[in-house]
Specification:
About 75% of the residues lie in helices and about 0% in strands. It has helices spanning about 5-15, 20-25, 30-45, 50-55, 60-80, 90-100, 105-115, 120-135, 140-145, 150-160, 165-195. Helix 4 packs antiparallel against helix 5 (about 60-80) and helix 6 packs antiparallel against helix 11. The N and C termini lie far apart (about 40 Å).
Length: about 200
């Protein structure tokens, strides 16, 4: 099995599009309060992404991610809330996982790939749900609009991973699995807090 298959198979075990939270969102069944909670809590994770790219010595993508933090802030603002410190235990664990994995280049590659490889499809699904079911200001859409066709980051990560020796690729795959699991659990925490 090549490294991309190994990575994608880890991600498929925690495919975020299959999560009840995103499924409820794309069906218009998620309460607006749950969207607000997601904007506040998950925004804390979005704010960590530039650090991962800085660890990879990619200031250009880190800068792009910093601009995306502002777009996320607009999403939160459109819901009459703002990004705050994480309160939900599983989101706090996601932040700790990100901080840990983003501190070294091999693990940063795997952790970022776990997020970036899923982002275009999850963004499309969330954007479609917002447009069809939620009467919200337009400022909630640009973050998802931008990320629904943002494949270049995952492609860039795969190039870097492909250049690594095999034992390093194994560390990347492990980090990818860790991050995929933490992303899934964070959504579960938000879902349980708002939808149980």
């Amino acid at each position: 099995m090549d490294f991309k298959q190994a990575l994608d198979s880890k991600i498929s075990e925690y495919n975020l599009l299959d999560h009840p939270f995103y499924q409820a969102w794309s069906a218009g069944e998620l309460p607006v309060d749950a969207l607000k909670c997601y904007a506040r809590e998950y925004g804390a994770f979005i704010s960590t992404l530039p650090k991962g790219w800085e660890t990879l010595n990619d200031p250009e993508t880190a800068e792009e991610e910093t601009e995306h933090i502002d777009m996320w802030a607009d999403f939160a603002d459109g819901l009459n809330t703002e990004v705050s410190e994480a309160q939900i235990p599983q989101v706090k664990t996601l932040l700790e996982t990100a901080e840990n994995l983003f501190s070294q280049s091999e693990t940063a590659l795997g952790a970022l790939y776990a997020f970036e490889a899923q982002q275009p499809e999850t963004a499309k699904s969330k954007l479609a749900g917002l447009k069809e079911f939620y009467q919200l200001p337009e400022k909630v859409e640009p973050y998802f609009e931008t990320h629904s066709h943002n494949e270049h980051e995952a492609e860039k990560l795969l190039e870097h991973i492909g250049a690594l020796p095999l034992d390093s690729q194994e560390a990347v795959v492990q980090a990818c699995e860790q991050m995929s699991s933490a992303l899934w659990d964070a959504l579960t925490g938000i879902h349980d807090a708002e939808c149980a």
